């Protein structure tokens, strides 16, 4: 998509990106060009963005916050000018020779320090309107003419909220500080002239020579210099083939590096005069340009350095020991430069509370979010709805205050009375709403992680669990998510003959026969000549017409062209240790051999038994060892989609160039044939992933010419990647096609029933994959992503707008059909039609295109999206979605750490959405509305009281009564709503159609809000008028009667709202009632009318009489009984769908 159609540009930190990318080669990726091309967006149809006029309304509705943030940012940039990053020359083992001062290699994840903690937390709290509103109301009580009640009536709730927030922030800061201290205190071996010295990670400098052991984290960005070999107690200088995974940075393709160092080798490193020239720090982790120069020899040695020579920080050494020279530290490291723009999905009411940089955590569980990283916010839908309702309540509060002043006749200083009424009705907007919702979200997260039916589930973002119950679109990866990412070798096709799983034994017999002929030919040649020749001609591979020789060549190419490293471990007392000993004593048995590779490779007939930096060894079925010297390796990249290797056979001296890759990349490289495209399509329709294998024989002169041009290109400092690629492509011509391999990626457990469950729940599933169209279509059918009775419409590639309209018209004529489309064919005009499909398959999608598809859905629909994946290429998609779910798979933990929720298997998503998503949304909706009801009912009573007594701005309830009403008297029963459930888990999974009602948002809407408003007005009026009518000739008793009836009404309303009782709910009701009855003996002074100085106190003898009891019961009965009757009639004549199923 990004390669052809400009879409909505990615909003990135353009200053930072431009700053670190300045001076880079002009040939950037198309993806980067797309992200920087913002002008094209305005030319798209149906995608024009109308800019909002910046007037007074814009300023009052949030523009002031934008202006303040902009001013603070400009001031911050002025005070902290960024240091210009330049290329550097690093002398080996001599950090003192560095010309410039480099940042300290310490990890700092704290948001605040001792000085900025309190101001920082307060700013995060009061930069939003509601919190600032409560602060203004509380501060107004210091003005005598505006004072309504006791100061703690307003300051105690606000102080409690701030105290909870500060304690939570302090705990997070302490945890971050401990993690930072633990990481900075890790010890590493540093090479000096005196030998090894232990240094802390934070004390490592640019130019230091650091030894990193097996399973140890790389402390800084380094150049891979040497590895130690125990076999001959010497040190070798390897090219250092290292693979890096984006997002995870796990070093998984490292060579077998035995432990131990020779003392003489350490001296050699300091006896030479050498330096490394490194480019300036960049964002891109997949490229590096530098040179290695040694000056103390004649002529000086110059070698080029590339990504294959680097060890990025936070990677882990797979095996052995490596020595590297540090080139970047601290904030200049690649992993740090890539930790910005993390999405923070949080509560809109508590925005700014908690920053979670889960996407920047690595496998060791520590956060890499630096204080320079900016965070973009993504607010939950339920929080947005509640935020709109609180704004409506604020408007109602202002209108009610104006009405009171108008009815009062604008007597006296009316503006002062207006503000007093605003303060008096401030309980309409409950400050406890935020606390209750935050505590409820934490409770939901705890319940999810404690669910035994989905073990291993981790909630990394606890602020949006309700999003799990509102999802309409699920975008899923294929490999590792729907499938197991365990490749099984299924097919070998030679053009005229094909071998499957049932005929693999024939391949084995052909290999045995072929090598038997080679052995006999070699034995005959050695007996006929007394002086054996270095090159012994192998007759079998030279014969191209026989099937046996073709199989032999194909299998040998498969066994040589890969990046797999065998690692041998011996079992000693149940523990595994690396195998030691010389090559002659090496145990090549299958029992103690494991393989390390970034991706599974095919293997049949020949066994890889050993590999080092310069050679690899294969074992034939007869047990003979074949040695091949590695001359060059061209690793696999997402751009080239192929890998190659040049080897020299020890026995014959022949030089062979082997290559394998995707059929799209290899079709133009191999010689003309008439079967490759057809067979690739056939295998893809069977759900197999294909690789094309080819070879080319090279003469000594051809290779020497290539090597000279290749080395010269690698030493270039400008456009190095292009020049190297051009030299390699000069070899990739007219290669001999050997075979086509097919591997099967099996489906995960219970994928089919899970997808059917989600489809029945009304969730539209989009599968985004990088595989070819045929493979994606086959997996969609086998996984039942596309149901049996659904048609499939394949959107053909188009090159013009007229062709696109023809395809659109053809698609419009079909109904209820699944869509299969390539990633670069999606555009804005087409998304509207694609959104109507029950299932969509997007093939040939890059990671950036996956994220763009998520943004397209968010742009063109008002529905919530969920993305699920397991690899580093899914991180951008997961972070772009409203709800991200990561699976801990074979590709590492980068997806699970970047996600909001982490699961271990795809089938767990059914219970996560149907059960926990439903409960979280229903409970939060009920909790939020009930907390607002609790504030509205007491504000209604206050309005009735003021209107009866000549519109006086005098509080009805004083002091602790107002504080206790929202805390100990009603907090526990109201919060117990987080345990309520309308449908049992088994019922929710049995009838997934119930999920469809959640996406309509009927549990929290303006309709339900108005119903609660009417209930509050009715109950508040009944409670206040009833107490005034029944005050028994003494006005002082109205407070005691009305407040007691109010508490009982709230407890009964909680009972009315609950659908499934839990024993903790009953306990919460009893505790609250007991607390209120016990407090009557101590709070008699607060039950007076107006000020305490009026002399009105609670009569304990009166509340113990039957008169008080029957009056309170009568008022409570009148306020609650009609609601119970209405609820009973509604359930009887118009029951909800779930009640029909449960009955």
TrEMBL record:
<dbReference type="InterPro" id="IPR059000">
    <property type="entry name" value="ATPase_P-type_domA"/>
</dbReference>
<dbReference type="GO" id="GO:0006890">
    <property type="term" value="P:retrograde vesicle-mediated transport, Golgi to endoplasmic reticulum"/>
</dbReference>
<feature type="transmembrane region" description="Helical">
    <location>
        <begin position="1009"/>
        <end position="1029"/>
    </location>
</feature>
<feature type="binding site">
    <location>
        <position position="660"/>
    </location>
    <ligand>
        <name>ATP</name>
    </ligand>
</feature>
<feature type="compositionally biased region" description="Acidic residues">
    <location>
        <begin position="580"/>
        <end position="589"/>
    </location>
</feature>
<keyword id="KW-0472">Membrane</keyword>
<feature type="binding site">
    <location>
        <position position="478"/>
    </location>
    <ligand>
        <name>ATP</name>
    </ligand>
</feature>
<dbReference type="Pfam" id="PF16209">
    <property type="entry name" value="PhoLip_ATPase_N"/>
</dbReference>
<dbReference type="InterPro" id="IPR023298">
    <property type="entry name" value="ATPase_P-typ_TM_dom_sf"/>
</dbReference>
<keyword id="KW-0067">ATP-binding</keyword>
<dbReference type="GO" id="GO:0005524">
    <property type="term" value="F:ATP binding"/>
</dbReference>
<dbReference type="GO" id="GO:0005802">
    <property type="term" value="C:trans-Golgi network"/>
</dbReference>
<dbReference type="InterPro" id="IPR032630">
    <property type="entry name" value="P_typ_ATPase_c"/>
</dbReference>
<keyword id="KW-1278">Translocase</keyword>
<feature type="binding site">
    <location>
        <position position="874"/>
    </location>
    <ligand>
        <name>ATP</name>
    </ligand>
</feature>
<feature type="transmembrane region" description="Helical">
    <location>
        <begin position="1063"/>
        <end position="1083"/>
    </location>
</feature>
<dbReference type="InterPro" id="IPR044492">
    <property type="entry name" value="P_typ_ATPase_HD_dom"/>
</dbReference>
<dbReference type="Pfam" id="PF00122">
    <property type="entry name" value="E1-E2_ATPase"/>
</dbReference>
<feature type="region of interest" description="Disordered">
    <location>
        <begin position="573"/>
        <end position="600"/>
    </location>
</feature>
<dbReference type="GO" id="GO:0006897">
    <property type="term" value="P:endocytosis"/>
</dbReference>
<feature type="binding site">
    <location>
        <position position="602"/>
    </location>
    <ligand>
        <name>ATP</name>
    </ligand>
</feature>
<feature type="domain" description="P-type ATPase A">
    <location>
        <begin position="196"/>
        <end position="235"/>
    </location>
</feature>
<feature type="binding site">
    <location>
        <position position="850"/>
    </location>
    <ligand>
        <name>ATP</name>
    </ligand>
</feature>
<dbReference type="InterPro" id="IPR023299">
    <property type="entry name" value="ATPase_P-typ_cyto_dom_N"/>
</dbReference>
<feature type="binding site">
    <location>
        <position position="770"/>
    </location>
    <ligand>
        <name>ATP</name>
    </ligand>
</feature>
<keyword id="KW-0813">Transport</keyword>
<feature type="active site" description="4-aspartylphosphate intermediate">
    <location>
        <position position="477"/>
    </location>
</feature>
<keyword id="KW-0445">Lipid transport</keyword>
<dbReference type="InterPro" id="IPR001757">
    <property type="entry name" value="P_typ_ATPase"/>
</dbReference>
<feature type="binding site">
    <location>
        <position position="870"/>
    </location>
    <ligand>
        <name>Mg(2+)</name>
    </ligand>
</feature>
<feature type="transmembrane region" description="Helical">
    <location>
        <begin position="1035"/>
        <end position="1056"/>
    </location>
</feature>
<feature type="transmembrane region" description="Helical">
    <location>
        <begin position="418"/>
        <end position="437"/>
    </location>
</feature>
<feature type="binding site">
    <location>
        <position position="636"/>
    </location>
    <ligand>
        <name>ATP</name>
    </ligand>
</feature>
<feature type="binding site">
    <location>
        <position position="771"/>
    </location>
    <ligand>
        <name>ATP</name>
    </ligand>
</feature>
<protein>
    <recommendedName>
        <fullName>Phospholipid-transporting ATPase</fullName>
        <ecNumber>7.6.2.1</ecNumber>
    </recommendedName>
</protein>
<keyword id="KW-0460">Magnesium</keyword>
<feature type="binding site">
    <location>
        <position position="479"/>
    </location>
    <ligand>
        <name>Mg(2+)</name>
    </ligand>
</feature>
<dbReference type="GO" id="GO:0140326">
    <property type="term" value="F:ATPase-coupled intramembrane lipid transporter activity"/>
</dbReference>
<dbReference type="InterPro" id="IPR023214">
    <property type="entry name" value="HAD_sf"/>
</dbReference>
<dbReference type="GO" id="GO:0016887">
    <property type="term" value="F:ATP hydrolysis activity"/>
</dbReference>
<dbReference type="InterPro" id="IPR032631">
    <property type="entry name" value="P-type_ATPase_N"/>
</dbReference>
<dbReference type="GO" id="GO:0000287">
    <property type="term" value="F:magnesium ion binding"/>
</dbReference>
């Amino acid at each position: 998509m990004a390669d052809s159609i400009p879409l909505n540009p990615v909003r990135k930190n353009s200053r930072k990106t431009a700053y670190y990318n300045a001076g880079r080669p002009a040939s950037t990726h198309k993806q980067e060009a797309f992200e920087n091309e913002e002008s094209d967006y305005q030319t798209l149809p149906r995608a024009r963005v109308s800019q909002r006029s910046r007037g007074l309304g814009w300023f009052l509705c949030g523009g002031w916050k934008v202006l303040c943030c902009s001013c603070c940012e400009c001031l911050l940039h002025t005070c902290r000018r960024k240091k210009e990053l330049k290329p550097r020359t690093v002398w080996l083992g001599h950090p003192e020779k560095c010309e410039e001062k480099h940042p300290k290699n310490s990890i700092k994840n704290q948001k605040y320090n001792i000085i900025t903690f309190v101001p920082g937390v307060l700013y995060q709290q009061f930069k939003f309107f509601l919190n600032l509103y409560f602060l203004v109301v509380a501060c107004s009580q210091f003005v005598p003419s505006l004072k309504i009640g006791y100061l703690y009536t307003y300051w105690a709730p606000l102080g409690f909220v701030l105290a909870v927030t500060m304690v939570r922030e302090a705990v997070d800061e302490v945890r971050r500080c401990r993690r930072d201290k633990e990481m900075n205190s890790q010890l590493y071996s540093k090479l000096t002239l005196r030998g090894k010295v232990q240094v802390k990670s934070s004390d490592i400098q640019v130019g230091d020579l650091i030894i990193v052991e097996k399973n140890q984290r790389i402390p800084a960005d380094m150049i891979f210099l040497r590895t130690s070999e125990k076999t001959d107690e010497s040190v070798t200088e390897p090219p250092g083939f290292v693979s890096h995974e984006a997002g995870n940075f796990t070093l998984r393709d490292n060579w077998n590096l035995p432990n131990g160092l020779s003392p003489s080798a350490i001296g050699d490193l300091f006896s030479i005069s050498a330096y490394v020239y490194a480019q300036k720090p960049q964002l891109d982790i997949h490229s590096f340009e530098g040179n290695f120069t040694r000056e103390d020899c004649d002529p000086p040695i110059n070698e080029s350095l590339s990504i294959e020579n680097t060890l990025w920080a936070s990677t882990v050494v797979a095996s052995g020991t490596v020595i590297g020279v540090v080139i970047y530290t601290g904030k200049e490291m690649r992993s740090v430069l890539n930790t910005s723009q993390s999405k923070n999905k949080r509560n809109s009411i508590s925005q700014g509370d908690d920053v979670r940089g889960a996407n920047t955590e690595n496998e060791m569980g520590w956060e890499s979010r630096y204080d320079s990283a900016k965070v973009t916010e993504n607010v939950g839908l339920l929080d947005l709805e509640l935020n709109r309702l609180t704004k409506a309540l604020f408007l109602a509060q202002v209108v009610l205050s104006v009405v009171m002043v108008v009815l009062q006749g604008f007597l006296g200083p009316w503006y002062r009375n207006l503000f007093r009424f605003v303060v008096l009705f401030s309980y309409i907007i409950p400050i406890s709403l935020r606390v209750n919702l935050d505590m409820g979200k934490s409770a939901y997260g705890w319940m999810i992680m404690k669910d035994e039916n989905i073990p291993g589930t981790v909630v990394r973002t606890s602020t949006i669990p309700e999003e799990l119950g509102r999802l309409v679109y699920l975008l899923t990866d294929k490999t590792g998510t729907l499938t197991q990412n365990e490749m099984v070798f299924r097919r070998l096709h030679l053009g005229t003959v094909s071998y499957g799983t049932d005929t693999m034994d024939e391949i084995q017999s052909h290999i045995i026969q072929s090598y038997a002929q080679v052995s006999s030919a070699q034995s005959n040649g050695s007996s006929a000549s007394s002086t054996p020749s270095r090159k012994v001609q192998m007759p079998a591979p030279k014969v191209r017409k026989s099937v046996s020789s073709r199989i032999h060549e194909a299998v040998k190419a498969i066994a040589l062209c890969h990046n797999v490293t065998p690692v041998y471990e011996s079992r000693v007392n149940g523990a595994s240790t690396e195998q030691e000993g010389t090559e002659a004593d090496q145990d090549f048995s299958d029992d103690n051999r494991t393989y390390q590779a970034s991706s599974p490779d095919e293997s049949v007939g020949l066994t890889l038994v050993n590999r080092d930096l310069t050679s690899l060894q294969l074992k034939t079925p007869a047990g003979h060892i074949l040695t091949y010297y590695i001359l060059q390796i061209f690793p696999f990249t997402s751009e080239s989609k192929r890998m190659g290797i040049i080897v020299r056979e020890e026995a014959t001296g022949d030089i062979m160039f082997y290559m394998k890759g995707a059929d799209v990349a290899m079709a133009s490289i191999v010689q003309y044939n008439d079967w490759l495209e057809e067979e690739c399509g056939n295998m893809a329709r069977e759900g197999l992933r294909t690789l094309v294998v080819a070879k080319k024989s090279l003469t000594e002169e051809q290779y020497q010419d290539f090597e000279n041009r290749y080395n010269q290109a690698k030493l270039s400092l400008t456009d190095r990647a292009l020049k190297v690629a051009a030299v390699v492509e000069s070899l990739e011509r007219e290669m001999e096609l050997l075979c086509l391999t097919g591997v099967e990626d099996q489906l995960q457990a219970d994928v089919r029933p899970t997808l059917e469950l989600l489809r029945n729940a009304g969730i539209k599933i989009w599968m985004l994959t990088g595989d070819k169209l045929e493979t994606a279509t086959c997996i969609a059918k086998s996984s039942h992503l596309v149901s049996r009775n659904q048609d499939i419409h394949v959107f053909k590639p188009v090159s013009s707008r007229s062709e696109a309209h023809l395809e659109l018209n053809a698609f419009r004529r079909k109904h209820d059909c699944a869509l299969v489309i390539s990633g670069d064919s999606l555009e804005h005009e087409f998304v509207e039609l694609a959104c109507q499909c029950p299932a969509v398959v997007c093939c040939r999608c890059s990671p950036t295109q996956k994220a763009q598809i998520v943004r397209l859905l968010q742009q063109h629909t008002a529905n919530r999206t969920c993305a699920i994946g397991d690899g580093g290429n899914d991180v951008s998609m997961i972070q772009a979605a409203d709800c991200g779910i990561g699976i801990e798979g074979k590709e590492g933990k980068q997806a699970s750490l970047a996600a909001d929720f982490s699961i271990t298997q795809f089938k767990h998503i059914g219970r996560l959405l149907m059960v926990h998503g439903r409960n979280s949304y229903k409970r939060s909706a009920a909790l939020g509305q009930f907390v607002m009801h609790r504030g509205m009912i007491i504000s209604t009573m206050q309005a009735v009281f003021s209107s009866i007594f000549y519109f006086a701005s005098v509080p009805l309830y004083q002091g602790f009564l107002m504080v206790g009403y929202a805390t100990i008297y009603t907090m526990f029963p109201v919060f117990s709503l987080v345990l309520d459930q309308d449908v049992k888990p088994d019922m929710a999974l049995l009838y997934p159609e119930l999920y469809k009602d959640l996406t309509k948002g009927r549990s929290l809407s303006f309709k339900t809000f108005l119903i609660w408003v009417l209930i509050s007005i009715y109950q508040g009026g009944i409670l206040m008028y009833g107490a005034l009518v029944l005050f028994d000739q003494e006005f002082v008793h109205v407070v005691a009667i009305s407040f007691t009836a109010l508490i009982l009404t709230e407890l009964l309303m909680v009972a009315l709202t609950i659908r499934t009782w839990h024993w903790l709910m009953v306990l919460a009701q009893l505790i609250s009632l007991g607390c209120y009855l016990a407090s009557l003996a101590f709070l008699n002074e607060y039950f007076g009318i107006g000020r305490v100085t009026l002399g009105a106190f609670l009569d304990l003898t009166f509340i113990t009489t039957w008169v008080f009891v029957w009056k309170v019961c009568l008022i409570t009965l009148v306020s609650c009984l009609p609601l119970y009757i209405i609820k009973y009639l509604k359930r009887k004549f118009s029951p909800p769908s779930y009640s029909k199923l449960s009955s």
